[in-house]
Design goal:
mainly alpha, single chain
Length: 55
């Protein structure tokens, strides 16, 4: 997959297999939102903001 940045948001349950497959193969991979820690939407938005502000 050729891209500068990829943001993927899918499903209502934590699914970490893509993250696990990519984390050691790509220079920067982040796990945010419910995949990282199930909580409310505000924490997911804050996680996304933190990642986006560093791009």
């Amino acid at each position: 997959m050729d891209a500068d940045s990829v943001i993927l948001c899918v499903s209502y349950r934590a699914e970490k297999s893509l993250y696990e497959a990519c984390k050691n193969k790509l220079p920067e991979v982040r796990l945010i939102g419910d995949a990282n820690n199930v909580s409310n939407i505000m924490y997911a938005i804050w996680d996304a903001y933190e990642v986006a502000s560093t791009l």
